[in-house]
Task: inverse folding
């Protein structure tokens, strides 16, 4: 059974020009950097506004912040899914 990793490798192998391969690697690296930045921001936010030390009256504000982080995760996941679909149609 082929895994996502197998599909990604096959898609990369189908690229013929060095420029396309470079662009593919650059996009992947940029997504990983975006994930790293988001992770850092979540960690910093949690240090400053930890759930354990937050008054109950501020729970809704925390919820809003967490949902915003969730939307960013969804955006990154959507990009990855769309990119996989494009590559599988090569």
Result:
């Amino acid at each position: 059974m082929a895994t996502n990793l197998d599909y990604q490798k096959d898609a990369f192998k189908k690229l013929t020009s060095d420029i396309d391969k470079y662009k593919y690697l650059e996009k992947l690296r940029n997504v990983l950097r975006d994930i790293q930045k988001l992770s850092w921001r979540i960690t910093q936010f949690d240090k400053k506004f930890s759930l354990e030390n937050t008054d109950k009256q501020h729970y809704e504000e925390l919820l809003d912040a967490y949902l915003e982080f969730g939307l960013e995760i969804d955006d990154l996941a959507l990009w990855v899914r769309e990119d996989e679909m494009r590559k599988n149609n090569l």
Remarks:
- Residues 4-88 form one domain.
- The first helix runs from residue 4 to 14.
- The chain is about 80% helix and 0% strand.
- The chain has one domain: 4-88.
